[in-house]
Design goal:
This protein has about 500 residues and is of the alpha+beta class. The chain is about 25% helix and about 25% strand.
Length: about 500
């Protein structure tokens, strides 16, 4: 029986008893009547942000019932957008890999680095990406990980599975990893780092390091030593297929409209319910996304979910670009922000998950690993994010700015600055192939004390072309400062980047 049928039953019953939904007469005092605390009662009329809600002795009117269920479906749609965003992001990554020609078993490798033509959430421009999809539906998969790389494997819901390489169990020496599907109960051979994923689909990538600004050594290392194949073919593994995706146009970013829910539905249909918690699956089921059932919203629900996606997207953008939690800021009176609040890749502090921190991360970035969040001196990477100038204003692509990097940046390997498009959260598309600057750049200009001044704007200051990153009039932008192999002065905050100053 639907809620509308229930409402009609209530109305008929009240009319049969000679009562009206607008009746305000006080009920007679009976023998067992006691004083009812006012805070547990529902008035006949309640004024809310949704309008006036009407009740007869606590029973909602037909109009109130309709209004409440429309609102409930809308709210669940918004919450589903924010909660299921990690899964939609991984789905979009898989679609992008396929669009770029990297099917099952193939590795997308950015032999000439990743430039702004590829739509990819906040990538760097200073390491060689090698990306691939792990499909475990046909059984365990072996991944041979090359030495001296930073690798991550996350499941289809963007839950962490393992690191590979420098931050992984092979400690940067390289090694063989064995990934098992959720239901696997077979024999596990020796000689592997073994991990069981909760999902069949998994996203994985390595980052290889430049040598004196040259990507070729990293490319050669990955193409020589990276290998993906079924465990069943371990004796005679097939040749590894690589696809050079540098400079290719492809999209790996999830939808921000009603198509978002279609992306999530595809994931739900492919993966076991055990891979996600019951509350999240219940939330999705409440808006029509449930394993084994078609996702077929009617016209009413399509309209509601269209609004839900729009509001969910707007909410995520406010959380990211105008966060109200002051704990995100790295320093007093500064607009530099942390990437992971509380140092947890699960966004948990004292047993409490920070929901805004999770939304912010997955709307902005790709890949989840403790190596990005935990204090690991000299290992992995650390990030500082900035959306505003020193006066608290969004960056204006038509204006010029300056960032001072003090002497001795605390990075064992190198540091970099990359500029991103606020719309796509991908690299800003300008006349420069790479909207970035790093300490690996051979012609970077340093001041006499070893510090570096970085300039942003439509045109470079005279004589500062090698330290300039272009912006686009009519657009805003944001940046990430990355430290590879972060050192103690980063963690104890005895070193800090300057604020980004508007130039007059």
């Amino acid at each position: 029986m639907t809620y509308l049928h229930c409402t009609k039953c209530v109305v008929v019953l009240l009319l049969a008893c000679g009562l009206s939904l607008t009746t305000t007469a006080q009920a007679p005092k009976m023998k067992m009547t006691t004083a009812i605390p006012p805070e547990i009662k529902t008035p006949d009329k309640v004024d809310t942000r949704l309008g006036t809600l009407e009740f007869f002795d606590g029973a909602p009117s037909a109009a109130t019932v309709q209004k409440m269920y429309d609102n409930l479906d809308f709210e669940r749609g918004v919450e589903a957008f924010l909660t299921a965003m990690p899964g939609a992001s991984v789905f979009a990554l898989r679609q992008g890999f396929r669009e770029a020609g990297c099917g099952e078993g193939a590795i997308c490798i950015m032999e000439n680095l990743m430039d702004s033509k590829s739509l990819f959430l906040t990538p760097n421009t200073e390491t060689v990406y090698a990306l691939f999809w792990l499909d475990l539906k046909n059984g365990p998969i072996v991944v041979e990980s090359p030495a001296n790389t930073l690798g991550i494997v996350d499941d289809f819901w963007f839950h962490y599975v393992t690191d590979m390489g420098n931050a992984g169990p092979d400690k940067g020496k390289g090694g063989k990893y064995l990934f098992l599907p959720p239901e696997y109960k077979g024999t596990i051979p020796a000689g592997y780092f073994v991990f069981k994923s909760k999902t069949y689909g998994n996203v994985a990538f390595w980052r290889g390091f430049l040598v004196n600004g040259d990507p070729k050594p990293a490319v050669e290392n990955i193409k020589k030593n990276a290998h993906i194949y079924p465990l069943a073919e371990a004796v005679h593994p097939p040749a590894q297929k690589f696809v050079n995706t540098s400079g290719k146009e492809f999209n790996t970013i999830h939808a921000n409209d009603i198509h978002f829910y279609e992306e999530v539905n595809q994931l739900v249909q492919e993966e076991p319910n055990e891979a996600m918690d019951p509350d999240t699956l219940g939330l999705l089921a409440a808006i029509g996304i449930e394993r084994g059932k078609p996702f077929a919203p009617d016209d009413r629900m399509k309209k509601i979910l269209t609004d839900s996606a729009a509001v969910g997207n707007a909410t995520a953008r406010c959380i990211l670009f105008a966060n109200r939690d002051k704990d995100f800021y790295l320093y007093p009176n500064s607009y530099w922000e942390v990437a992971f609040l509380g140092g947890s890749h699960e966004f948990v502090t004292n047993g409490v998950r920070n929901l805004d921190a999770r939304t912010r991360m997955f709307y902005y970035a790709t890949g989840i690993t403790p190596a990005m969040a935990a204090k690991m001196v000299g290992v992995g990477s650390q990030y500082a994010i900035n959306f505003r100038d020193s006066q608290g204003n969004y960056f204006d692509g038509g204006k010029s700015y300056k960032l001072h990097i003090p002497p001795n940046p605390p990075a064992k390997n190198f540091w970099s600055i990359v500029v991103y498009d606020t719309q796509t959260r991908s690299e800003l598309q300008t006349d420069q192939q790479f909207p970035s600057l790093s300490s690996q750049k051979s012609d970077i200009q340093k001041n006499s004390d070893g510090s570096v001044d970085v300039y942003f704007g439509p045109m470079p200051p005279a004589g500062k072309e090698s330290n300039w990153v272009q912006s686009v009039p009519g657009k805003t932008w944001n940046i990430i400062l990355r430290l590879y192999g972060p050192l103690e002065p980063w963690f104890d905050k005895t070193w800090r980047p300057g604020d980004i100053e508007l130039q007059k």
